[in-house]
Design goal:
This protein is an alpha/beta fold. About 45% of the residues lie in helices and about 20% in strands.
Length: about 140
């Protein structure tokens, strides 16, 4: 099981909080500051999890999530959506688009790390085991 998480946020302060909480929990991190950069890094590195802001200037998180879920190579990567928006329509759109979890800012850094670990472990357990080599 890979231990790499891609964090996507255009706000330096929120990016730093997310980065510190997940690094402290022992995860390897990739950082993107836009939806387009996130798509590129996700395709290149296939992280175990993506933690992504919803509101970003070039490509918003919901649109990036939809693109990730539409591509076979990245479709199974779980995504946690983070946003300062508490509107139900955004939550419904995120969950309907395949988000594993939707958290509203401010969030508990320790809760984020625990949820990240839980989601990565659940995704790894759901993966079929490779066939055993015949003797």
């Amino acid at each position: 099981m890979t231990n790499t998480i891609l964090i996507v946020d255009d706000e330096p302060h929120m990016l730093r909080i997310t980065e510190l909480s997940l690094k402290k929990a022992g995860f390897n991190l990739l950082i993107a500051r836009s939806g387009n950069e996130a798509l590129q890094l996700a395709r290149q590195h296939l992280p175990a999890l993506i933690v992504m802001d919803v509101v970003m200037p070039d490509l918003d998180g919901i649109s990036a999530l939809k693109e990730l879920k539409a591509a076979p190579a990245t479709a199974k990567i779980p995504v946690i959506m983070l946003t300062s928006r508490g509107q139900n329509v955004t939550r419904v759109d995120a969950e309907g688009s395949g988000a594993a979890l939707y958290l509203t800012k401010p969030f508990s850094p320790s809760a984020l790390a625990a949820e990240a670990r839980r989601i990565i472990e659940a995704a790894a357990a759901a993966e079929p085991n490779p066939p055993a080599a015949s003797a």
